[in-house]
Amino acid sequence: MEFGPILRAIRRNKVRYGLIVAEVALTLAVVANCVHMIREARREMAIPSGFDDANLIRVTSTPFAEAFREDTYRDNERQRDLEALRRIPGVIAASNSNFLPWQGGGSSTETRPLGSRGEMLRNQMYSVDEATLATLDARLIEGRNFTKEQVRSDAERLRALFATNRPVGTDGKPRDKFTQDVVVSQAFAKLLFADGKALGKLLEDSDGDQYQIIGVIDRFYNPYGWPIHEYVMFFANNAGSFDFGVPYLVRADPARRGAVTAAIEKALLAVNNGRNLRVRSITEIKEQFQSSSSLLVRILSLVIFLLIFVTSLGIVGLTTFSVAERTRQIGTRRALGAQKGDILRYFLLENWIVTTMGLTLGVVMTYALNVLLVSTLGAVKMPVGLVLLGIALLWLAGLAATFFPALRGARVAPAIATRNV
Amino acid sequence: MFLHNLRIAWKSLRRNALLTALIISGIALGIGTSTTFAAVRHAFARHPIPEKSDVLHYVRLDSWDPLKPYPGDDPTRPPTQLTYRDAVGVMQSRIPARQSAMFKTNQYVYPDPKVGRPFRETIRMCFADFFPMFDIPFRYGSGWDRKADLGPEPVVVLSTTMNDKLFGGVNSVGKTVRIAGRDFRVVGVLADWNPNVKFYDLTQNAIGTPEEIFLPFHFVQPMQLRTAGNSDGWGTSGGLSGFEGLLQSETCWIQMWVELPNRPAVDQYRDFLAAYVLDQKKHGRFPRPLNNRLSTVKEWMDDQNVVPKQANTMLIVSLLFLAVCAVNLVGLLLGKFLARAPEISVRRALGASRADIFLQHIVECEVIGVIGGVLGLLLSLAGLAGLNAWLKATATRSDFFQLDGPMVLLAVGLSLAAGLAAGLYPAWRTCRIAPAIHLKVQ
Question: Does any domain span residue A211?
Answer without folding.
Answer: yes
